[in-house]
Amino acid sequence: MSTVTAPRPHAVDHVDVPDNYLTHSRGFLSWILTLDHKRIGVMYMGAVLVSFFVGGTFALLLRTELLTPGRTIVSADTYNQFFTLHGAIMVFLVIIPSIPAALGNFVLPIMLGAKDVAFPRLNLFSFWLWLAGAGFTLYSLAAGGFDTGWTFYTPYSTTTTTGGVIPVLTGVFILGFSSIFTGLNFIVTVHKLRPPGMTWFRMPLFLWALYSTAIIQVLATPVLAITLCLLIVERLLNIGIFNPSMGGDPVLYQHFFWFYSHPAVYIMIVPAMGIISELIAVHAHRQIFGYRFIAFSSIAIAMFSFLVWGHHMFTSGQSGLMNTIFSLISFSVAIPSAVKTFNWTMTLYKGTISLTAPMMYALAFLFLFTIGGLTGIHLATLNTDVHLHDTYFVVAHFHYVMMGSALIAMIGGLHHWWPKMTGKMYDEKLAIAGCIIIFIGFNLTFFTQFMLGSQGMPRRYYDYQPEFQVYHVISTIGSYIMGIGFLTTAVCFVQSLRSGAPAPANPWGGRSLEWQCTSPPPHDNFKTTPRVGNPYDFSMLQWNPAEKGYDVDPAREAAAFAAEMQGEHARGHV
Amino acid sequence: MLSIASMLIAQAAAPTATPADFWLPSGASNHVAGVDTMFHWINYICYFFFVLVVGMMVVFVWKYRAKEGSKIRLDGLTHHQGLELSWTIIPLLICIGIFFFGFRGFVDLTTPPKNSFDVNVTAFKWGWTFKYPNGAQSDNLVVPAGRPVRLVMRSNDVLHSCYIPAFRVKRDLVPGRFSTLWFQSDVPTGLDESKGYHLFCTEYCGTGHSNMNRKVLVLEQPEFDGWLTKQAAWLDEIPDEELYFKAGPKLYARCQQCHSIDGTAGLGPSWKGIWERVSNPTGSSAFTDGKSYADLIGPGKEYATPEDYIRDSIYNPGKHLVAPYGNVMPTFKGQLNDRGVEAVIGMMKHLDEFDAKGAWTKSVPVATK
Hints:
Strand content of chain A: under 5%
Shape of chain B: elongated
Radius of gyration of chain B: 29 Å
CATH topology of one domain in chain B: Cytochrome Bc1 Complex, Chain D, domain 2
Oligomer: heterodimer
Largest sheet of chain B: 5 strands, mixed
Strand order of the largest sheet of chain A: 1-2
CATH superfamily of one domain in chain B: Cytochrome c-like domain
Distance between the termini of chain A: 40 Å
Largest sheet of chain A: 2 strands, antiparallel
CATH superfamily of chain A: Cytochrome c oxidase-like, subunit I domain
């Protein structure tokens, strides 16, 4: 059986267990009816990657259309549908579920040493809801598509003649509940299923991030549900809520929408930050710098995220006083993000840095997130935002944060936990090549868009002034390079599935609990409740010449654990 | 004499547009200095922190990369309260500073002076109409130089947004509300459209969103006054018999995004054959409610004459919808007066004299010269 790991010096005692979660039961029904968080996570991951492929294809079509002013390959109406679909798919079907629902589902219970999440049935239901939501989104295409932009701004969205608006609103409504249930599940799981010895401040930082995210999901997403309901009611029954010709107020819709959708940005980026904390600590083999500051900054971001939605509306007609208050509070989000960035950088200081594929992704994240975060200052500042709002500058900024940061972290995390999920290693060189190609393509694509925007090119434009063409051409070339990068990564993963070397339990020398069970983990994760230590204590690692990497020295691990048991904080007051 | 002297002084000190740089386009309004200075200062701060973070990252990765067989380093700091507090507090202070200057700039940006010259702006899918106090209308925004101009803006249908990059101003137009925006430009462009500043719609509004752009033309006050007087009377100055081919094509420019002349499919019914349809109404169903032209047009019907029907279709476009088209046309009430409607109807009656783009193809008959 190919998934059984070969005996290795550092492998823990579960290595002989022939049974793992992938082989535990067989057949289609055993997957679609499974209550196993790992299988649900893997199914989510598959679904998210398929959606990413679809959304990415739309992106490449958009970029191709923008190669020349005027018509290049499609009509204006088709282009409007394409950018709407690209946005809606990437936000609701890809980025929001990608880290919490896909990676989080797989990793969170194992990191806690638990057998599963607190409510396994709710977990499965949440995945089914995702499928139903995706189904409605797909159906909306058959029903005539939709050209509203992913923001569904009224009164355009209630008056446009495209037929797919109500199906897609229904789809997003359902996806929202999928997200709420995942969040609810994670909150309860983190509160109730931590093993003895794992205090809040001994949780790996990825758990802090998932916990903060779950709070936002549970508190913010219902507002989206209500808003979409009202929109459906207005469109279907002509009840005036947002449309001024029926006595409504379109700016009210913007408030409702961004009250969810701004926190949603943090649903995307906070778990990504959690992944980066893991990747940098594990692959630099070094105690994370300033654990408490990083943990609290996740919570701070979650809280501030509810108070800044108005910065999307500086030119919308909300009052000057509101603009001022929202601008001031928006800057407050910059602080915890800056703290995290500096702490990650300091974690590299005096580390023992292995330049593995996950580490390369973490470094790419640090580079891209710094740009994405800093350009947020231009947009939080009132007078510069007036010039930059709704231009390509905004497009570039949020792609640096949503894609360059959130998605890059997700893919980095996928490389990090891939051996655990599949039991296979991948070709490190090919994975790093993919990362570098994506990185180059990404910067070509989106850095030029900063210039486009600050020079005055509005977003969501099918046609444009000829002086902008040179930037568009560079951006399009970059997007093709990025496409090649993702293809390389896909080839790397497929190759790994077909012929990858069996993965050891702990290929990177990680210290959180998921590295203590076999790769792939058995159905119940752990035979006995695992020993909990400092998740960032790497002092017991040793160089393994056969692996050309680091693994845990069991003797030193036992000694360190015994020392901790005696009430001594081994190192670092974690 | 005094006015000539002041004109000379104005010319001697004629301000020029700021040159475009790597980041920002050429600027030509009172807001440019404030916004651009702010933008560049934020950029300097960004460069500093970017180089700091990425520089440290590169140095650390290079210096502390794991070499084969190297032992795990254990001498790194695990936390440092002073350091961490410093990179919490210093960015906070910088942010408060940036906020403050941005706020001051925003107050300038949104507080028009009392003596400003008002222009009424109406946005619709997919175009703009600019109306002046003396009743003049224009498709381009023509403003006097050296004088604060306030745009009082409204939308006829969905959200739009008025953006003039060279002036660094932007404001959404929300249906059911008025919104305002102000600027003062001291850099005249003349009436040549190719020298004008771009005016874009930056709030997504459907099919024609990216073509919903116009030019801002800045004229010296005397030239502006002349233009304004002429513009107010342009429809009245055209003799009745020349109205349809002189005014028609200009007015058709606002219709052509949806209504073709040559039968090409569009968002609204093509004008091709329209006069035959309404002047000889048939009984076959033509409207979304199943009615025919004959049901609506004729003595004793809703519209006594075909002209009445056309006029009402322009003013109340949603009343009777030609199948299979949706209710997407904005009203032109208040934008097109009776003489304008007359010109449009005249054009429909002589459609064979116009090419597909609405240009008149015949020469002026001798009799009317």
